[in-house]
Amino acid sequence: MGGLRYITGFEDRPPVRTGISIGDSIAALWGVIGALMALRHREVNQGKGQIVDVALYEAVFAMMESMVPEFDVMGFVRERTGNIMPGITPSSIHTCSDGKAVQIGANGDAIFQRFMRAIGREDLADDPALADNAGRDTRRDELYALIDRWAASHPQDEVLKVWSRPKSRPAKSTPPPTCSPTRSTWPARCSSTPPCPMANPSKCRHRTQALRHPRQRRMDRASAG
Fold it and tell me: Most CB atoms closer than 10 Å: which of 2, 63, 95, 146?
């Protein structure tokens, strides 16, 4: 009912759902925001409370970007477009020669030029017709076919190396359990003998610091200080 499923998938196939219960998660965030606002309202208005009412479909609908003004002003109904977003080109998922996938978003003007030069297409990098999104989008079939062919001729590791410069990196298509930045800090209890008395595993001194993510170590130092 919020519209997300309608626009998710490919134009020649039925709509598909996202891989997670995203409506529940988004509604929970709106609920937290509402609760914080209600607490602030109570502080300002001498203890008067508020009711926080959040619906799943409303939470999802709030994420639909410009779909409402597009329809209200221009009568345009957004449809399914697969892995691309019309008007933002190039930005899609591509399959490498080893069967692994990468998400390449080179839709920024400067990033697009760097990408074209990195793959040996200086002619496209310097093409004035491709200097902005509008021009690139009119030739998106050409550009996506080119990037598909390039990615398909290299394994994922080589594709990522091409994008080694700052502000020019693609993203691997990675299963959720392997992409968490703090996955090495997940064990529910300390494995030391005897068991560590610390109630908070993140502060356990028995665990190997070398396995801990740098961000987690900074958080530990901040909480200890």
Answer: 2
